[in-house]
Amino acid sequence: MKLIILIAFLALLNLAKSQNCNNDCSRIGINFLCGKTVRNGREIRCTYRNPCEMHLHACQKREEWRKDTTGRCTRDSEECRR
User: Fold this and answer.
1) Distance separating alpha carbons of residues 43 and 37, to the nearest angstrom
2) Using CA atoms, how far apart are residues 33 and 22, in angstroms rounded to an integer?
3) HSE-CB for 56 with a 13 A CA cutoff
4) pLDDT per residue over 16-71, tens digit each?
5) CB 36 within 8 A of CB 43
6) SS3 assignment, position 7
7) Longest dimension (CA), the chain
8) Cα gap 48→71, rounded to integer Å
9) pLDDT digits 0-9 by tens, 37-52
10) What sign does the CA torsion over 60, 62, 66, 69 have?
11) What angle do CA 70, 17, 73 make, to 5 degrees?
12) Using CA atoms, how far apart are residues 32 and 72, in angstroms rounded to an integer?
């Protein structure tokens, strides 16, 4: 019984954690980075103002984004404008 309660608690904790996609990244400042992800087998690169903005976007899209390079991307993917 304790195991079931523990599993339910951890599931609720993960759910609450995954739905917190409302961070305010505007106060962090500008520190451009090029982030990337793979969507439908295609690499997508987008420029973000700071790491917070990239993590916020990843949370909202429920995707895994990683820093590719410091500074702006050489070329942003078409999907970045959506």
Assistant:
1) 6
2) 20
3) 12
4) 555 679 888 988 999 999 999 999 999 999 999 999 999 999 999 999 999 999 99
5) yes
6) helix
7) 55
8) 9
9) 999 999 999 999 999 9
10) negative
11) 15
12) 6
What amino acid occupies position 74?
T
Pick from 65, 51, 22, 20: nearest CA to 79: 65
71: Cβ contacts below 8 Å, ≥ 6 apart: 32, 33, 34
Q: How far apart are CA 8 and CA 78, in angstroms?
A: 40
Does pLDDT of 6 surpass 60? no
> Measured between alpha carbons, how far is 49 from 81 in angstroms, rounded to an integer?
14
Three-class SS state of 42: strand
- pTM, 2 dp: 0.72
